Amino acid sequence: MVADLRSDTVTRPTPAMLEAMTAAEVGDDVYGEDPTVNALEAEAAALFGHEAAIFTPTGSMANQIALQLLADRGDEILCDSKAHIVNYEMGAAAAFGGVSTRTWNAPGGRLDLSLVEPMINRPNPYVTTTRAIEVENTHNVGGGTVQPLPELESLRELADAYGLALHLDGARIWNAHVATGVPLADYGRLFDTVSVCLSKGLGAPVGSLIITDAERARRGRILRKRLGGGMRQAGFLAAAGRYAIDHHIERLADDHARAVRLAEALEPYGVCEASQVETNVVLLRTGGIAKIAEAAAERGVRISVLGPDWGRLLTHLDVDDDAVDRAIEVLVDLVR
User: Fold this and answer.
1) Could you tell me the fold of the domain covering 251-335?
2) Going by C-beta distance under 8 Å and a sequence separation of 6 or more, which residues neighbour residue 15?
3) Range(s) for CATH 3.40.640.10 in the chain?
4) For strand 310-314 and strand 304-307, is the pairing parallel, antiparallel, or unpaired?
5) Residue 156: its pLDDT value, please?
6) CATH code of the region 15-247
7) What is the mean predicted confidence (pLDDT) over 163-180?
8) Is the pLDDT at 73 greater than 80, yes or no?
């Protein structure tokens, strides 16, 4: 048995998902003629209370298109120092969009408006103009942190007061929705652009979406083509996303419960805190994590190493109770 806890991106399509993919009706999406892509985009937009959506190959592309929709060359976007857009997207905001970023420190990935407001630059001849603020929910390296809805509502009020746009990196927003019961539309209404991932917790093999208004979607399609993201018969991939949205959202609660079980088993050895597990992410903090990961992999348990003294476990569609039992057995033996 292999328990691959490195990421929720390692899932494989279920037999029913594969069946939906092979049965998909397709067309040329660059021409806007793929009916399955069109249906996915319309359904996703409706879920988040927006007018339109754009299907993209990756979450990084979705984020970067969104940032270019909200800020022009020479403008800046504010985000936290551990945000995916500044740590794991290869400097794309600057490289492709000419957009700079400034960051605030957010322990645990938690949004703190008292840190954000003083950073906002109004237009003047001496500083880079702030155009937008980005928030990640759930927060990946924060440990699957869920941003509280009241704090997000206050952020919307702050942005409106300064005339700023908001982008939500909602790669795992589905997990936040299941963990809190907050409707997806309640998250969506607060943001000008939302990126959501289909190939993480929902288990599709490929794909993300940008959710926004109709005019930004029109401009976003141009940016998608410019970045090489115009796909042809993409309906085969979109069908997987539609199946995932229809069948794999509510089951995320199982992933959350398994993550808590992992954390509770490891907590007595001082490597994690079960109370900090809000969704499907367990952060491990211990010296020699690389050696632990290597030894665990030799025994069929794979984990992510994020630094010299910390790593990550993610539960997902392909990690069942038996896999969690195996992971507990191996990891407890290595960290005690």
Assistant:
1) Aspartate Aminotransferase, domain 1 (3.90.1150)
2) none
3) 15-247
4) antiparallel
5) 98
6) 3.40.640.10
7) 98
8) yes
